[in-house]
Amino acid sequence: MFILSCERSGSTLLRYIVDTHPDIASPGELNLGRLCAALYYSTYYSVAQVVASGEIERSSRAIEKVRQVVSALMAEYTAAKGKRFWCDKSPANLQKLKMIDTVFPDAKYICLYRNCMDVVHSCLEWINNDEFMDGFAPYVRKHSENHTAAFVDNWTDKTRQLLAFERANREKCFRITYEAIVLDTVSTLKAMFEFLGLPFDPRLPDSVFLVHHDLGGGDPRIRFSKKINKHSLGKGSKVSRTNIPADLLEQMNAVLSELGYPTVGPDWDTAPSPYLPPETVTDQSEVGTTVEEIVARHLPALLKSKREKINALCKIAVNGEGGGNWIINLAQQSIQNDDGKVKPDCIVAVSARDFIDIMSGRLNPMAAVDVGKLHLTGDPVLAGRIGMLLFGT
Residue 282 above 60 pLDDT? Predict the structure, then answer.
């Protein structure tokens, strides 16, 4: 199985969901398309060149060898996980779909889409990540002074590729959207697993962040998520339409329309975002609605639930109304008011509002660090361990 999507479309979340199923092992991004292509050309110009009598047989032997090698690799991994099927989630596979489909003619594909403006907003948040930006190099070079245009072009081009593949292989493909996953989780996943020919337990979504998932390529922020939520929907409304060239805007809107998304019209910068889900009841925090409640009730329970004990003192500095300063003794799993007499090994500084949002799962702590809402000072390795202990799953 392959999850196909462009970058920042929620594929890491979908990979976690698929990997939670008792029959499917889905590791971090393996880029199997690139691996298949490299193995094919290596075999084609080595062993197959010697043993095959003609070009057709030569190509066939190379494909068969690639299938054997990759299948053996994935079969060993799947067996080690105690599962029956494997799934690769790698956005780069879009560039090698012909090769993948040739090597694995019986594969099934989950085609994941997300509205362009939300994708662009998410990309802009990651703009200082050099490793992330490498995947957008051709588009950034083309739009060297306009990153918004580069990310719109990237989404439009790659989404067209995915739609073309889906149209040509309808019996192998299942279309799913990020919005459907987070707004109608059970019904959407039930239909997806039915397409895959596998049973679906409606309790599966509740286990996504409770079971272990192997490390690997993908969005590292997911390690700080606690549940499937809708808090990333509609953020694309912050991206101005004026930053998108007219010709590119027309192309993007054509693809949005084909996918059933609202288009970006002249009122985009002034009207409420059509991507925002309807508001119903305001989310109620499961951990507490004030800083005091979280520190007094949730944090002690959280510390006691963790197996790892770190021999360090962490200061929590919460600024603004309802805030305060506390010292957490991570070895003893205790919390006390900061009287200024001890020197902490690490300091976590955040506003009261953002602290509540982070602890309740409405704000991803890694995203908060990236945009300057959460500050961790001290030994960076220790700060990372403490961050995972306090905010991770």
Answer: no
The pair of structure tokens assigned to 289 is: 């609605």
- Listed in sequence order, the residues at least 6 apart from 54 whose beta carbon sits closer than 8 Å to its beta carbon are none
**Strand-pair partners of 112:** 176
What φ, ψ does residue 334 adopt, rounded to 5°? -125, 155
Residue type, 90: S
CA angle 6, 11, 14 (to 5 degrees): 150
Q: How far apart are CA 327 and CA 365, in angstroms?
A: 19
- R_g (Cα) of the chain, nearest Å: 24
Average pLDDT value for residue range 278-306: 71
286: amino acid identity, one letter: E
The pLDDT, as a whole number, for residue 297 is 85
371 pLDDT above the threshold of 60: yes
- Evaluate if residue 283 carries a pLDDT over 50: no
Q: Show the domains of the chain with their CATH numbers.
A: 2-224 (3.40.50.300), 291-391 (3.30.1050.10)
Give the single-character DSSP code of 23: T
Do the Cβ atoms of 18 and 26 come closer than 8 Å?
A: yes
pLDDT score recorded for residue 392: 66
Confidence of residue 129 (pLDDT cuts 50, 70, 90): low
User: How many other CB atoms are there within 10 angstroms of residue 104's CB atom?
Assistant: 19
Which residues, at least 6 apart from 161, have a Cβ–Cβ distance to it below 8 Å? 94, 97
Residue 317 DSSP one-character state: E
**Nearest of 66, 381, 117 to residue 262 by alpha carbon:** 117
Strand-pair category, 346-351 with 334-337: unpaired
Strand partners, 316: 326, 348
User: By the 8 A CB rule, do 305 and 369 touch?
Assistant: no
Residue 360 confidence (pLDDT) above 90: no
Tell me the angle at which helices 246-259 and 116-125 cross, rounded to the nearest 10 degrees: 120
Residue showing tokens 């003794």: 329
Mean pLDDT of the chain: 89
